[in-house]
Design brief:
alpha/beta; five-stranded parallel beta sheet; 38% helix
């Protein structure tokens, strides 16, 4: 079966790795570039279906890329940017972007927006071992997990950073001001219990000692 082809133009190495890995797991063929000139050259000689475009790039910025492809390359573009102001969004749309998603972004939402471009709706389901975010709820193996709000925030962060290690400091941002980082261990333990993950030898929620946690699925 022919795979839908995506070109990712992003200069953040970490974002490239986790986005590319996730989308390839979803069945897309993904080519990633950190320089606009390299991406434009590839689009000139290769057929892609969707461009995922960061606006802040080391050579040509994202707006210049949109201008360059507007009249010469037929491709659907989703802008992915840390800029959330309406002026920037409108400028991107005027230059031909079809969609705009603000960083930090949820990978399942990004997948849904890509499928929407293909006219296939929000296809969020993965295999039976996949975590699925649906609004404020998280499902595992097709069953909703009964989580507290703090546990939900922690698990959403881990899902978004799938396969990458999330530091304890980043996860602790989900805790209340009166909580200590030590309470993070308590919440992680509860999450493991609720997904039947063995704390001594976890399959899904793994500890990276001295750093943080990593979710594998």
């Amino acid at each position: 079966m022919k795979k839908n082809r995506i070109i990712l133009l992003e200069d953040d190495d970490a974002a490239v790795v986790y986005t590319k890995d996730f989308l390839e797991d979803c069945g897309f063929a993904v080519d990633a570039f950190t320089l606009s000139t390299d991406a434009l050259a590839s689009m000139k000689f290769n057929k892609y279906d969707v461009l995922l475009l960061d606006l802040s790039l080391p050579d040509l910025d994202g707006f210049e890329v949109l201008k360059a492809i507007k009249s010469s390359i037929r491709i659907s573009t989703i802008v992915i940017s840390a800029h959330s102001d309406i002026k920037t969004k409108l400028h991107a749309f005027k230059l031909g972007a079809l969609d705009y998603i603000v960083k930090p972004y949820n990978l399942e939402e990004l997948e849904a927006r890509i499928w929407a471009i293909f006219g296939k709706g929000n296809i969020l389901e993965k295999s039976s071992d996949t975590f699925l975010i649906n609004g404020q709820y998280i499902f595992f193996k097709d069953k909703k997990i009964n989580l507290t709000q703090t546990e939900t925030d922690i698990l959403k962060t881990l899902i978004t950073n799938k396969k990458s290690t999330t530091t304890r400091e980043d996860l602790a941002s989900s805790l209340s001001e009166i909580s200590s980082q030590r309470s993070l261990d308590y919440h992680i333990k509860n999450i493991r219990k609720k997904i039947n993950d063995d704390g001594s030898s976890p399959q899904y929620l793994k500890t990276e000692y001295g750093v943080g946690y990593r979710l594998c699925f």
